[in-house]
Amino acid sequence: MAKREHALLKRAKAEGTPLIDGSDVTFVWEGDEAPVLINDQNAWGGEGVVEMTKAAPGVWSHTITVEPDSYLEYAFVNPDGRVPDPHNPRLTTNGMGAFNHYADLPATRHTPLIRRGRGVVAGKVTQHRINGGFAIVGDKRPVYLYQPPTTEPVPLLVVLDGNDFFKRAKLAAIVDNLIAKKRIPPIAIAGVAHGGQARFVEYLCSDATLAFLIRDVFALAREHLNLVEPTGGKYGIMGASMGGLMSLYAGLRMPDIFGSVISFSGAFGFGLGGHRSVVHDLVELYPPRPLKLWMNVGRYEWLLEPNRHMREALTARGYSFDYREYSGGHNYTCWRDELPLALEAVYGG
User: Most buried of 34, 74, 80, 118 (most Cβ within 10 A)?
Assistant: First the structure.
């Protein structure tokens, strides 16, 4: 007599994984032993891993409850490293040489602006490499420049991790669409690549990085783009994670230049042996800066509480700003979907 297949496994083979029942998401594994689950909710293993529960001989599962509009990324790991989920072919790069599986819940909606609309004029994107001298690690640093489709001088938005925002977050297409729909005025962009292993050092509230941006990146941008002067805080800065921290630092440190700040999932929780980051001192010990500020963070990521604390600190000091918590984690798919909201909040009038 044939052995009856467990209901979870039967569904996994028929529907794909994870299984979605309303707001409940169930991960399923078949085998004598189960890998562990890592995702945003356990800081990708940094706060421990999820052990799958044995549902039947050879069948393992784990269920979480999330918002109905959630976007999720996850991976299975055994002692030899990551192993694919055989019932979920959907993969996306994690930006660090590995791939995550992903899943949308039924109410999830991704921005349609990653594809240029019919008749939308594309801005011009050029790639450059510049020498940052003493201010950065390495001899040359890639920079992407975006000139919007206008002959008028425009403000500059500096984007940290710029190569990732252009490639993975479809920044140029989103900006083209927003300009064409008159949801934002034309802006120019300088997307600056990070320093690899030096990224943490360069983005941890670094005046050397500010020197590189103001001296070298601005010079390159002025050479190739038609820009207004930065005086009066006419330029902006945007980044994610450590780049989000660095962006807020730049605005607080030099509001006369960087008057517009966009921080995606800012890494505000780093301390120094019990001493908080200097970005908190800039918020609490100085008069409020005249910033157009937009912040967000995912409900399922480890930076949720640090961002809530920063929101409270900014509010207590009298800052007026936009803050959002979205149903997702720490990844470029979520930041890409939030990009139109951020740009409209800061530049939309």
Answer: 74
